[in-house]
Every structure is written in C-alpha cells, then in structure tokens.
Specification:
By secondary structure, this protein is mostly beta strands. The protein has no helices and eight strands. It has one domain: Immunoglobulin-like. It has strands spanning 10-12, 21-23, 38-47, 54-60, 66-70, 79-85, 91-100, 109-118. The strands form two sheets. It has a four-stranded antiparallel β-sheet with strand order 1-8-7-4, with no helix packed on it. A four-stranded antiparallel β-sheet has the order 2-3-6-5, with no helix packed on it. The protein is elongated and about 45 Å long.
Length: 119
C-alpha cells in the first residue's frame, strides 16, 4: 500500500455565536489511481457558521478531472466535503480549500491545506 503525505492548516475567523470550523483538523487524503473514478472520498466536514456555504480552491490545484462537492446537511447542520471525479494525471496535488458561510457582512471563512497523490 502506497503512503500519502498531507499538509493541513486551518485558519478560522469565527462568525457571531456559531463559529465556522472544518474537521478533522488533520489527516491524509487517500491515494487515488489515475483513470479510476472516485466517488465520495471525504476531505473535511464543515460545522457551524451560517449555511449555505461556498467552497473554493484558492491556492494550488486539484488533480485534473476531479472536483470538490458537498453532501446533504446532517440534522446537526454539519456538511461533508468530498473529492470526486476521475483523476486524469498522476502526481502530488496540493491545494487550499476555503469555505465561506452566508453570515452577516462578508461571512466567516475557514481554510484548510491538503495534498492528494494520484498513482
């Protein structure tokens, strides 16, 4: 089994009364295989803040052919973020994911840096 190295940094700017956070606070994304479809590999879970959320990759890049999606909100309001698609290129891909909620003014933001390896 191949290993993956990941860097994960979280910066949180709290919203009033219900801070926006991303969980887990660390960990590796699973290795992916070039040309093999991926459906629903978890990246992180959004908790708190004010839905709906917008998700952007504002630094780095996802593997070509892959995108980030969100799941259905749970009863506690948390929402999973997944990486899905068919990776078209091998290599290590580092990216920063930023989630923005719909809170007052500009909303709260939380960012996480991740790396996914495609073999």
């Amino acid at each position: 089994m191949a290993s993956v190295s990941a860097t994960f940094t979280v910066t949180v700017q709290p919203s009033a009364g219900n801070p926006l956070t991303l969980h887990p606070m660390g960990g590796n994304l699973p290795d992916e295989t070039q040309g093999i479809a991926v459906s629903g590999d978890p990246v992180t879970t959004i908790q708190g803040g004010t839905p709906p959320y917008s998700i952007a990759v504002d630094q780095g890049t996802l593997p070509p052919g892959m995108q980030l999606t969100t799941g259905v909100p749970r009863p506690d309001g948390s929402v999973d973020v997944f990486i899905e698609g068919t990776p078209a290129q091998s290599g290590a891909f580092s990216f920063q994911l930023t989630v923005t909620d719909s809170g007052p003014a500009t909303g709260s933001k939380a960012s996480a840096s991740k790396t996914v390896s495609v073999k």
